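Quick illustration for those who missed Monday's session on complexes.
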Amino acid sequence: MPRPDPWIPSAEQMAQWPAVSGNAINGVGETAVRRPTPVYWFPPDDTPHGPLQRWFLGRLTPKVLAAREVRQRLIDAPLPPLATTRADRAPEAWSAEVKAAARAAGADDVGIARMQPHWVYEGCVVPERFAILLAVSHDWDALRTAPAEDAAAEVIRQYGRAIHVAKQVAGWLREQGHAATPHGGPLAPPMLLVPAAIAAGLGELGKHGSIINRHLGSNFRLSAVLTDVPLVPDAPDAFGADDFCRLCRACADACPPRAITHEQRVVRGETKWYVDFDRCLPFFNEHQGCAVCLAACPWNRPGVAESLVQKLADRAARRRGAAA
Ligand code: B12
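Prediction with cobalamin bound:
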């Protein structure tokens, strides 16, 4: 069945659009690895698309504004002071304890990555050696209503939870005498969370540009804690989601502005799924945020992710058997 015509953004919003394409800023087609350029969710005066951020914020409804107020209180909550005595443990013990602290604070998954310079935005600095990546699920019944207001408010609520978990983990490390910085957004700096979370074993990049996790699907938010406490990095977790996305059309067909394509692109030296910024952002802005791609993703229906992982493992075993 032919897809309906793509959604068209309002003239009012497009009057704010800058001359430069967000895809060019993001380095689509560039074959050399480089650090990302700030594109969105930076202080608005610092990026060409900053006026669009102001336009987005000026149109939020009372329900979404109320969720943002709760989130702001979590952002503003102080961290405990850095203890003057520094606890000493082996990296394996620190890793196990950090993960236990994250789970106790409410993380639905957690992994550890060694920091890489090309995750850090141009103009930002991350001196720490390790990133602890934290995942918190959205409530499915709210998220699946996207692009409705309930999904937008749920996204903000879970941003708050992700920030809270990051602060709890950073606070726990500081009580052990080790400096730790939480990074939960909602602003983007100092670093990209998705490649760090993939390196930390939280899953694979989906066609819709969000990570698919073997337990949570793609229905989750990320936050991080940056620290020099000695840790053991996790390995990436490839369980077949990338192959699955090559055949699945659900998110691309559901995306109203057709920002999702079936071919991977070269972006800053990496071949990967890429969501078209210039198509995605206008729809996102006119709907107080959008998560239609996550609402359509087959990995997100409750109970499905783990059975899909098993099916993909069975299929891979059958292929290996046939090839032997
Ligand atoms: C700016 C931003 C946006 C912008 C622009 C996104 C874009 N495609 O250009 C807008 C507002 C449109 C947006 C929309 C959404 N976003 Co957003 N966004 C961000 C933010 C703040 C910065 C990312 C960025 O600068 N992208 C621009 C350039 C760098 O993008 P890129 O080159 O295409 O790289 C993307 C991925 O390919 C990946 N990536 C980067 N380098 C590499 C390298 C390798 C090897 C791989 C495999 C992947 C990878 O990370 C980038 C994520 O956008 C991050 C938080 C953060 N600090 O990381 C959240 C974030 C990526 N967004 C997220 C989500 C969930 C969404 C939405 C579903 C909205 C929602 N309801 O939450 C939609 C989905 C659209 C999409 N997937 O692009 C989540 C993803 C969580 C997950 N499960 O993976 C994040 C991590 C926020 C969070 N705290 O959880 N987003």
